[in-house]
Write a structure and sequence with these properties.
Blueprint: H1 3-9, H2 34-41, H3 61-69, H4 75-93, E1 96-99, H5 103-115, E2 127-131, H6 158-165, E3 169-174, H7 178-181, E4 194-195, E5 199-200, H8 231-234, E6 240-245, H9 251-256, E7 260-263, E8 283-288, H10 291-301, E9 337-339, H11 363-378, E10 382-384, H12 390-393, H13 423-438, H14 448-457, H15 469-475, H16 483-509, E11 513-517, H17 522-528, E12 532-540, E13 557-564, H18 570-584
Parallel strand pairs: 2-3, 2-6, 9-10, 9-11
Antiparallel strand pairs: 1-3, 4-5, 6-8, 7-8, 7-12, 11-13, 12-13
């Protein structure tokens, strides 16, 4: 197999540039990244001058479109610019599983359409990346698993089709935690953004390994967030990317990489063609550098009509033309009612029978959020403070949502799962097997049981470095016999997350949204199925519970703010988020990636 084909399959031996604390380790020869090979194959010289006076770094989708409309830039030049950046910096960040070998040809075809006056919309000729659990039939879809290395599924995801029909170029498949972090939980938790095919991804705001002895397995010193990767978008490898979110994996990595992230209402975007965790909570969403870009991508991902392959779709009416840019109102905070849910989100809560507390902010986080609340007030918002979410403020553990997690490790196998929701592990058996069946006779494996055994048989090849405790507790579920337990737990989920959760606080205080710190609001939105938008705002110290060794100068971590609203309130949340972004403009590019 040729070097380029190997690179396209995503099998790489990643060795980060830096090793802690500041010592540079010599590295063996490593083949050029796929992006540079593509450029060479296409006869492009990565060192020659490119579009005069133009840089893709921090350039928004509307700015890219305007340059192409003026004839100052072609999509082919744009793809070339991004491929050069991938070639220059991918070795440090490990942001991609595979790169599209036909990206330049696709760009040329879209340039030809533009020359004929045929512009499909704001995504015409714009390169984006998809998390590698989202089906593409022109690129492998691996979920980061050795068993799926090089696998081409028999059908595209609906959102992939929608984006390509809108004129987007899928330039790469972005890295992820293997199978969206539903493989290895306690006692050997798989670190975020690790997968068996490409290893660890690194946060561009501090792309170094964790130097602490207990966690010196190659993982990053600064978290990349949840199971989706925002690394490439943060470093301007592409205009934006699509992540998937079951418990926070659009919002958390967006927050960690200083991005805008939207987790839409459950069912607004079709899940057909996405490797699932549980369809009761799974949702895909855009991750971009600006609210405007996220609005454009959301419209490109959404279907004009309900998808017959996903019965959840149709819950929300798309805006006319699926155009969310009409809600980009810089004065959108004026008169808006925004709630501050102090209990748990800002201030720690103590539950009956527990010695410690739950939730709360550090001093630095609290100071930053105080500043953010002042911005809301200065922009004319009516700030309701406090506006506690009832299920987070309740002192009884049986009525407190913070005390009702989902079963997620070997310690919560059958017989030990009384105090956690079984829905994730139940759904991972029900929906994962149904997804495997949809792949047809050429699927690498046909059941979760078979995949677990495959991983055990190939453990020496790195198939299960951190075990597979989440697969194990899922596979022991009986879809028929355990249905009643799952339905009971789902009812409790809805009671605490919706009825006594987001719906209750919005109704009690007549709110447009609640305002949450960092990625803290991701859990409530994911389990209630309601939308949330996170926006960059600042930095806080990277101070883990176990301190870094002396001499390791940890760089600060990005920290944003979240707006959570009712079902189908994306237009209003985009308006609020855009107004906040325009009033603050706090996103800064990661240093060291010019």
């Amino acid at each position: 197999m040729g070097i380029l084909a190997q690179a396209m399959r995503g099998r790489r031996h990643h060795i980060p540039v830096m090793t802690p604390p500041t010592v540079r380790r010599s590295r063996p020869f490593r083949q050029a990244p796929a992006a540079l090979l593509l450029l060479a194959a296409a006869g492009c010289d990565a060192t020659r001058p490119r579009a005069a006076g133009f840089s893709v770094v921090e350039t928004s989708i509307p700015e890219l479109q305007a340059a192409m409309e003026r004839g100052e830039l072609t999509s082919r030049q744009l793809v070339t610019e991004y491929l050069v950046r991938i070639g220059l910096y991918e070795d440090r960040l490990n942001a991609a599983v595979s790169v599209n070998p036909n990206a330049l040809a696709e760009a040329e075809a879209l340039d030809a359409e533009r020359a004929r006056g045929e512009v499909r919309g704001p995504l015409h000729g714009i390169p984006v990346a998809l998390k590698d659990n989202i089906h593409t039939t022109h690129l492998p879809t691996t979920a980061g698993a050795v068993a799926f290395e090089g696998y081409i599924p028999p059908y595209e995801a609906t959102l992939t089709t929608n984006l390509r029909e809108a004129g987007a170029i899928i330039i790469a498949k972005a890295g992820l935690t293997e199978f969206a972090n539903w493989m290895a939980g306690p006692p050997s938790q798989m670190p975020g953004n690790y997968n068996a095919l490409t290893g660890f991804a690194y946060n561009p705001y501090d792309p170094r390994r964790d130097p602490r002895p207990a966690t010196s397995d190659g993982r990053p010193a600064l978290s990349t967030g949840g199971s989706s990767s925002g690394v490439g978008t943060a470093a301007s490898f592409w205009a934006g990317n699509v992540g998937t979110d079951t418990g926070g994996s659009v919002i958390s990595p967006s927050n960690a990489n200083m991005l805008v992230g939207i987790r839409p209402t459950l069912g607004r975007i079709s899940r057909w063609g996405i490797a699932p965790v549980t369809l009761d909570h799974d949702m895909a969403g855009p991750m971009t550098r600006t609210v405007a870009d996220a609005a454009i991508m959301l419209g490109g991902m959404e279907s004009a009509a309900p998808d017959p392959n996903d019965p959840a779709t149709g819950i929300c009416e798309p805006p006319p033309g699926r155009d969310y840019t009409r809600f980009l109102n810089p004065d959108g905070l004026a008169g808006a009612r925004i709630g501050i849910p102090r209990a748990f989100y800002y201030d720690p809560v103590r539950l009956e029978g527990e010695e410690g507390t739950r939730g709360g902010l550090t001093e630095a986080q609290a100071a930053l959020m105080g500043e953010a609340i002042s911005v809301l007030e200065a922009q004319g918002a009516v700030v309701v403070d406090p506006a506690d979410v009832p299920s987070y403020a309740h002192p009884d553990p049986d009525s407190n949502f913070a005390a009702w997690g989902f079963c997620a490790g070997a310690h919560q196998a059958k017989g030990s799962d009384q105090n956690c929701s079984v829905n994730f592990k139940y759904g991972a058996k029900r929906d994962f097997n149904a997804w495997l069946e949809s792949l047809g006779p050429d699927a690498p494996v046909t059941t979760l049981t078979e995949l677990r055994q495959w991983n055990l048989d190939h453990a020496d090849g790195g198939a299960a470095r951190y075990g597979q405790s989440r697969f194990d507790i899922s596979d022991e579920m009986d879809v028929d016999a355990d249905r009643a337990r799952n339905e009971a737990d789902m009812a409790r989920d809805e009671l605490l997350s919706r009825t006594r959760g987001i719906d209750a606080v919005l109704a009690e205080h007549d709110l447009d949204a609640i305002f949450t710190p960092g990625s803290r609001g991701a859990g409530l939105a994911a389990r209630s199925g309601t939308p949330i938008v996170v926006v960059p705002f600042g930095f806080v110290p990277n101070e883990p519970a176990t301190s870094f060794p002396d001499g390791f100068d940890a760089r600060p971590a990005p920290f944003g703010v979240g707006f959570t609203g009712a079902n189908c309130s994306e237009p209003r949340l985009i308006e609020l988020a855009y107004a906040f972004e325009q009033a603050t403009r706090r996103r800064v590019p990661p240093p060291g990636f010019p």
